[in-house]
Amino acid sequence: MSLDEKFDKVMARYDELRDTLAAGLTESGDFARLSKEYADLTPIAEAIAELKKGRAEAADLAEMIADPAADPEMRSMAEEEFHLLTKRIPELERKVQISLLPKDEADEKNAILEVRAGTGGDEAALFAAELFEMYRRYAGLHGWRFEAMDVSETGIGGYKEATANITGRGVFARLKFESGVHRVQRVPATEAQGRIHTSAATVAVLPEAEEVDIHIDEKDLRIDVFRSSGPGGQSVNTTDSAVRITHLPTGLVVSQQDEKSQHKNKAKALKVLRARLYDRERAEKDAARAADRKNQVGSGDRSERIRTYNFPQGRVTDHRINLTLYKIEKVMAGEALDELVDALVSEDEAARLAELG
Fold first, then answer.
1. What PROSITE patterns does this protein map onto (predicted)?
2. What is the CATH number of domain 218-288?
């Protein structure tokens, strides 16, 4: 199917939905479903209409320019307008093509963020804590809610691992390319020789799953309760309120101990477990779909090194798109993270457009 045929198909469906909804002859359940489809198609239909208008104007201008009887001044104005339109039409075509790309059903979902210290001992744990704070600040700049769910501290300000629930509009769409290994190069505060050390932390961003997305059978769970403890084993709770849930079919284990209520810890642990199972299911589908895909921006593989933060040189490099920003402080403050995210989103769109051929 050619691009123009796709455009016509979208416009025909858009007109059909408009007429159906205007007639008000649908059942209440159908009305909600069709209204959503109509709302989703509206920006695409508007972009197609804008593109068709631009093409029609360009054709009229080309005709005027080719007319030997045309007034020279009018021809000159037409040529100028035609030149502007020929630059704008490919941009409009790309805009429409992007809007027609299959949507990631998880893009509008909230996210579960997991950050874990990797190789590098205390320095890795300190970096993991800084990454966690970077995402907290980034969430704040976007007006999202950032709720720390479970934080395992090292006692010197570092995190062995930390989990947060981030809620807001389009959270997963903006954060999904953050999954992978983040490497840091710098001189640790504890290093007397002033040598640069390399350490790493792993980030996982999972779409938050609803019960409708993933059903968990109670008989597939083993739930253990234990006493919460703080850094160094110091007791922070005198009751068995901490919860560890093991999903027997997959072997996935989730622990939660931040709340004083066992019920609340169990609810939070189930939320994380559901997100991990949903992410696992998506990864299996993506792997099958992308078996012959060469231009993936990121496979989402947790072992893939995606970014290096070099403090002595003040730079952050994303290895998937070979983009380097010399503004490490602004990236760590969450302020410049959008520059990386925007570039990753654009690269992913370009790769998917290339697949459509």
1. RF_PROK_I
2. 3.30.160.20
